[in-house]
Amino acid sequence: MKLMMKTFLAIYVGIAITLAILMTTAKRGEEDLLFVSTKRVSRFLAQKEPRHKYHCKKDADVCYLEGSPGSTCCNNKCIDIKTDNKNCGACKNKCKYTDSIHAATGSV
User: Which domain of life is it from (predicted)?
Assistant: First the structure.
């Protein structure tokens, strides 16, 4: 009976030590993963800017700042409705294939 208890105790201690070692090495691996580079890999993701610089949802005056892409606030982004094909003369008014931006805005 004492031999059996000593055997179980030895197995229990061995498993506990093994798990402790595995947990510490797993945590070290997770720490290394936290500092992985955030550089984009896909060329398709590189074409779109994920974080638009000029958000105008709370303050439309942001669109009038120097360097802003346009003076119209549409979908929380500053756009120029005179040159943007996705907003043909007005917000959320997509230009049709045969339409042009100049016809929609009345400019030449």
Answer: Eukaryota
* pTM exceeds cut of 0.70: no
Domain regions of the chain by residue span = 52-108
Q: What is the dihedral of CA 59, 61, 63, 64, to 10 degrees?
A: -170
Structural tokens at position 87? 């907003």
> Which residue is it, tokens 């800017």?
49
- The count of residues in the chain is 108
Among 65, 68, 96, 66, which residue's Cα sits nearest to residue 80?
68
73 DSSP β-pair partners: 78
Tokens 């230009």, residue?
Answer: 95
